[in-house]
Amino acid sequence: MSKYLVTLTPTGKFFFGGDMRFSINGNKEEFSSYIIESSKMPQQTSLLGMMRFLLLSNSEYFNTETNSIKDSAKKEVASLIGENSFTVTDGTTYGQFGKIASVGPCFILEKESSTRYFRAPADYNFTTVEWIQENITEVCINGKKVRLPKLKLKIKNENDKEEEVLFTGKNYLTPYFTAPFSNNSKAIEEKDLFIADKRIGIDKDYEGKSKTNALYKQVSYRMETGYCFAFEAEVDDNITIFNKQLVSLGADSSTFIFEAKKIEEIEATETNNQQGTTVVLLSDAYIPAIPDDAAYSFSINKMRTFRFLKTSNSTDASYYRINGKTTATTSERYELYEAGSTFYFDNTEKRDAFCKILEERKDFNQIGYNKYYIK
Amino acid sequence: MKYTAINIGPIIPTISMGRRPREIWAASYIFSFLMQCIITEIKKIKGVEIISPATLDSKEKTGVGLYPDRVFVQGEFNVQETINTALNKFEELTGVSKEYVNVMHVTIDSEESPIKRLNQLLDTTELCNRPIDEESRNSVIDILTKGYESPLHVHAFNKLEYHIPFLAEIATTRLSGEEKWTELCKIFSKIKTNKEATQKEDEFYQSIKEQFKNGIYGKDEKYFSYYKYICIVQADGDNMGKIVSSINADDVKDISQSLLNYGKAVCKIIKEYGGLPIYAGGDDLLFIAPVRAKDATIFDLIDSIDELYKNTVDAKIKDSLRPNGIHTYLSYGLSITYYKYPLYEAFKDAIRLLFEKAKNVEGKNAISWQLRKHSGTGFVGGFTKEMPATDGKETLYSLFKKVSQQSVDEKLISAIAHKLKTNEGLLDILFESYKDNEPKLKERIANFYKKFMEDTDDSAYTTLTKELLCTLMINNKTSEITTILENLYGMLRTAKFIKGEGDKDE
């Protein structure tokens, strides 16, 4: 088993899809948003899928002419990449992905300095986060009592001078990426890493006819020069042989240059301040329920919708859509806490109970979700 | 003395699920109704008083969400118990799971500006979100897509069945006096699915075009492209927060009552114009409207709303309550889009135009708009309605309305725009040299027009554009000339669109 640092350098614009489709009243009327905006970061499930396909397509068990698994090779393929793609279970078991043991959380790598950037903590914009609030009798959110922080941030006033003010809903909170495990404390604004590429398109079917309601606007992104996506992975195989290959990730022929470097140890992504009572998510997290003994006193967070494609190895499956057919199905819909979400606790006991809940989800942890650090 | 504020949501994410006017209406109404349930429970408690909002009589059915997303209460009571009772009733009456909605409350002891403090504290609570399970989410989707029959209609209109118009109906309201139009609109009644709606809208427009061709609407009436466009308007009061934060609870109650009266009246105006009010809570307003009604344009409607707000709200505020003598006005974000353009995106555009553009115009009291053509081209414009024109008599806004009453060939607008663009460098020199000397600038621009525009056919129209250009230059001294010319071009193209353009590129 070896540990690798995998980098994915975009060759151009890229598009990472989200949950744009839903059906109504259980009938199959599905429709999607006409304005489709890419996520900035790929899903962890997409990274796993990319890795599985990389191993499969480069193996002797794959017919590159038909883009499908060879008839006789089902067992071998299962050993190589597992039988199924990611599935949500009760969380008590790891998935079986053959030679791929685990995938770590995705981050942005600054190539020159090797600095690793993650989504900044959700309270990053605030210059003051104080827990003393005068005159408050009670604060409740959805029936639960919470402790409300006093939040302040710096803005430019009418005279164009910076002043620290109390947060209100009118303040825009700039999204940043920070390097929590580096002594370099530089933060990068999201808009300086991801450059929007907007296009109007007409959706055509495979016969070249425009589909009904086919007009759409798509917002893809390009990455600023000098940066790439990266993640760590444990694989029981040599994946450096795939270096410089082009891999697909996301939609619309988003291609990336794959490179892998063997590393001795998985870099500690959990540098924790043991006395701290604030937990920050490094990656999106699935937390279906939080009991009272693990309850946060307050949280600054965002939710994101999570769906993924479910596939199983089949010699009938074609790994390209032809005539619109594919054997992949869409999963149920989940809601995840977004990376950067920040949770504050009254004491280290509650903090630890919460962290245990994050860690206990083996299915999500294995592929890089539910990662956190304490500050 | 205790003060409590209760906040509900998630309003914007719920409205984003809507694809048709009736779904957006339902998404907005859910929250107004939830607030109504909470207020009903609070009113039962002795010794507490609602400061804001003012409340409707329980039998009054306005068909629009008139309650905002926050209620402020004076007095001590068991807040969570009251909320729980209201949530149970809400769930029972609508079928929407109480696990879907967010309800937060803050209670403080008496202080100098309780409303201001409570607002700030509630803003902080809104940073804390929770996941919504599929079942709860489906309960909302269910009610949004009820269509013609909905329990929400019973609360809003006193009947289960109610037809909320489709975009095609709203966009063509100008034809509503004609029997043929009314008959044609019947194809929209009792539509169940969005797929069916799309098909019917396409059929509707084919029939409308045919009717125009056959002279049904009068042989001089033309089929213009604006029949296929709709306006989404989001409006918000300027300086209302500053005024309310500095006054006592009794005075807040008076303002709340004024706002409720305004809310009821503004919905009436919008409906009379042919629009569909979605929400009118406090000083917030959201509606869908046609570009043109019988004898008015969307800008005329905005004028009427302004006049109503001035008389019903601003005029009712005692001078002694105005910090630094400020007044409250309405600023607007207006998104004009093709009827097939995703409704929620048009709605997001309107919000963005209001809060990122109009609210940042100096002096506020502004309109910021965007006309997004089906061909993909777009025009933007925006200004404070008070901007004085350089002729000393008009405002930029009144000049713009004059321009939109002119029939003018597209070639003339293109010619004027081309000449301005080609000579941008010269205009920049004139602008930078004379922007602080109004008479000199006017003289120079007049000379410019004499030299470069004398071969244009329509002197009245050309003169108006000259006046617009001077006014924009004098009042935007810190802008770049490119931005000024873009604003001017956006105004001219929008004005022409509103007057009426052929359907050639649709």
Q: Helix and strand layout, with pairings?
A:
The complex is a heterodimer of chains A (375) and B (506).
Chain A: E1 2-10, E2 21-24, E3 27-32, E4 35-37, H1 44-57, E5 62-63, E6 68-69, H2 74-81, E7 100-103, E8 107-110, E9 115-119, E10 128-130, E11 136-141, E12 144-145, E13 150-156, E14 162-166, E15 176-178, E16 188-189, H3 190-193, E17 194-204, E18 210-223, E19 227-235, E20 246-248, E21 255-263, E22 278-281, E23 298-300, E24 303-306, E25 309-310, E26 329-330, E27 334-337, E28 342-344, H4 348-360, H5 362-366, E29 372-374
Parallel strand pairs in A: 4-18
Antiparallel strand pairs in A: 1-19, 1-21, 2-3, 5-6, 7-19, 8-9, 8-19, 9-15, 10-13, 11-12, 13-14, 15-16, 17-18, 20-21, 22-28, 22-29, 23-28, 24-27, 25-26
Chain B: E1 2-9, H1 11-15, H2 21-43, E2 49-52, E3 70-74, H3 79-94, E4 102-109, H4 114-125, H5 134-144, H6 151-157, H7 167-171, H8 179-185, H9 194-213, E5 229-237, H10 240-245, H11 249-273, E6 276-279, E7 285-290, H12 298-312, E8 330-338, H13 343-357, E9 366-372, E10 378-384, H14 396-403, H15 410-422, H16 424-434, H17 438-452, H18 459-475, H19 481-499
Parallel strand pairs in B: 8-9
Antiparallel strand pairs in B: 1-3, 1-4, 2-3, 5-7, 5-8, 6-7, 9-10
Helix pairs in contact in B: 2-3, 8-9, 11-12, 14-18, 15-19, 16-17, 17-18, 18-19
